[in-house]
Amino acid sequence: MAITSFNPPIRTLMGPGPSDVHPRILEALSRPTIGHLDPAFVGMMDETKALLQYAFQTQYELTMPVSAPGSAGMETCFVNLVEPGDKVIVCRNGVFGGRMLENVERCGGEAVMVEDDWGQPVTPDKLRDALAANPDARIVAFVHAETSTGAQSDAETLAAIAREHGCLTIVDTVTSLTGTPLKVAQWGLDAVYSGTQKCLSCVPGISPVTFSPAAMEKATNRKTKVQSWFLDLNLVTAYWGSGAKRAYHHTAPVNAIYALHEALVMVQEEGLENAWARHRHLHLALRAGLEAMGIEFVVPEAARLPQLNTVKVPAGVDEAAVRKQLLERFGLEIGAGLGNLAGKVWRIGLMGHSARPANVLLCVSALESVLGSMGADIRRGEALAATEAALNA
Amino acid sequence: MAITSFNPPIRTLMGPGPSDVHPRILEALSRPTIGHLDPAFVGMMDETKALLQYAFQTQYELTMPVSAPGSAGMETCFVNLVEPGDKVIVCRNGVFGGRMLENVERCGGEAVMVEDDWGQPVTPDKLRDALAANPDARIVAFVHAETSTGAQSDAETLAAIAREHGCLTIVDTVTSLTGTPLKVAQWGLDAVYSGTQKCLSCVPGISPVTFSPAAMEKATNRKTKVQSWFLDLNLVTAYWGSGAKRAYHHTAPVNAIYALHEALVMVQEEGLENAWARHRHLHLALRAGLEAMGIEFVVPEAARLPQLNTVKVPAGVDEAAVRKQLLERFGLEIGAGLGNLAGKVWRIGLMGHSARPANVLLCVSALESVLGSMGADIRRGEALAATEAALNA
Lengths: 393, 393
Prior knowledge:
- The structure is a homodimer of 393-residue chains.
- Chain A has 393 residues and is an alpha/beta fold.
- Chain A has 14 helices and 13 strands.
- A 7-stranded mixed sheet of chain A has the order 2-10-9-8-5-3-4, with helices on both faces. In chain A, strands 1-12-13-11 form a 4-stranded mixed sheet. A two-stranded antiparallel sheet of chain A has the order 6-7.
- In chain A, strand 6 (145-146) and strand 7 (151-152) form a beta hairpin.
- In chain A, helix 2 crosses helix 10 and helix 11 packs antiparallel against helix 14 (383-392).
- Chains A and B meet through helix 1, helix 2, helix 3, helix 4 and helix 10 of A and helix 1, helix 2, helix 3, helix 4 and helix 10 of B.
């Protein structure tokens, strides 16, 4: 055995996440570790909570980073809110709705599915019908921005429908946070989780969550203990809660929190509205380039996430071979399809620090080059001008 | 709101963890992020597994880092192995045995407690008696190195007793891994978890685990689904398993794995036996200095962990004021007592990169200085010479 230090290749990350991490964030990540109960760290935890409240657009007191990836953030919402026997309406229009179903079942809840096609947003009328047919439902769970398809659902409308029926909402905002408008308090979302490795362009591994007072009331008045000790908010809040007295629960991932803090400071500096506009502007430029080649989008225009562009693989093209060439020749990563869409689509991310003009130009020109060299049926010679025009618009 | 970048104060970390992180590891942590399904990352995952096998002294196929802190590593062991109704013998001689009890109950298992005083190792005869009285027990859980007390239990003997009674073992090695002898395969331990922020002197946030074939057989032949989707080894192994085909489960904390890989390369370079000897040598030097001042150890000599020194606060001394002065005047962090020992002891860590002669000298001299200035009843003027003599021994 003679294993030596690992030096990663240099990549441009335009898949569904992780996105390119800004050098400022990598630098913050590597600052010297201090104790997780150090007064200086505790003060920084409070700043991180305030910055997360800004990013989520909420004042919910329970707003904090879960010390694990987005999947654990999802699980935090379900294990704290779903008690055995609770009926939960789960809207599924991609992979992550299916993962929500798994969570409901593993909590002993009863799931009622609202199904939409992959690539489509959740249909509000279907949720209305499901709630009318299930007046005993307690919770509605849906994905704001489906990372597996690039479709955005109308979180505000879905939450309003749930509220009319007395249901709490669990909302996946892993891919939407800071990339597209998300207004947790104004829309009345109840238990919301996200990830660091998407539009925050931070390193993967942490999951910001925010819980409304109503959600916290259910979580703290359960009849049964939360099945996960690690994710039990009744315990975690003693550590991440307010006030000078912090009770040890687990050891926070100190350096990852440094990085998240820096990422959130950068969001604050840019301003949320500017970040949303940047993602949209660059999406339009990427779209112009791709459509100029004849590449088509999967998701209907009104529901497209600017930060995650799912496009059809041109007929006859070996999609994996294209991704391999992009990676090996240009160090460019784009994403494959997942689940039902595997083999049929690419997912091109424009998230956070990845959402910049240079990346759009690289992606469009590298795709034209690789597809052209493989003899794919695309239009050549028009993409760059189309992209430029959209960048300058 | 005007929150700016966080610049941590410079500390010397001699508490119960995190320990000082070596600059090489901080530098590895900050290397550019790549995709978690990038072929280069997948190859590095295999190296990380091999290096973890060396650190754990095992060839168990399921040896991998859980993408969350040690508490989640503990939970991984319990949720995968304990099915509702399973009887589990839990040995408790500190905080973490109590956390194991919480885990058993939240999995629907029935816990039978074997109690020892805090600061004492687990008494093998008590385990024998509990197993004789509970022939239907399926699992024995104990802590190898109790982080709350600094006591080391005889894992080899306890595992042998469990095996005689047909039980699997779940073993907490959070504080022991690479700091004191741990031979997972030779001792026949079954489900073992650790942390990165102790003797690996890596950043906190990741939990290495290793499962024996017998443990994996129980985990993969359950009658019920694992209650945690995030920690379900039946799913996680498709991501961290062997073979070229990796199925997406969650997004690995890419940069934290870079750091763990580097920490493990450093363990390999030093050699486990040398690392164990270093921890022991520096423990003896610290002990010499502390005892020369008249400070007493809590744990009986035979059960002392070299990497975690729990000592009694001298009579009449405000222990929190001492820690505050050490932190503010010298940037030195030592740990408070936890649970039953709160207010009565300090926990002084000598873990990984913190286990070096300069740290021992700093700790001894800073303690003498602060305690002296507070008028504590300690012997003065002898500690430095005693420490030097032990360092040179």
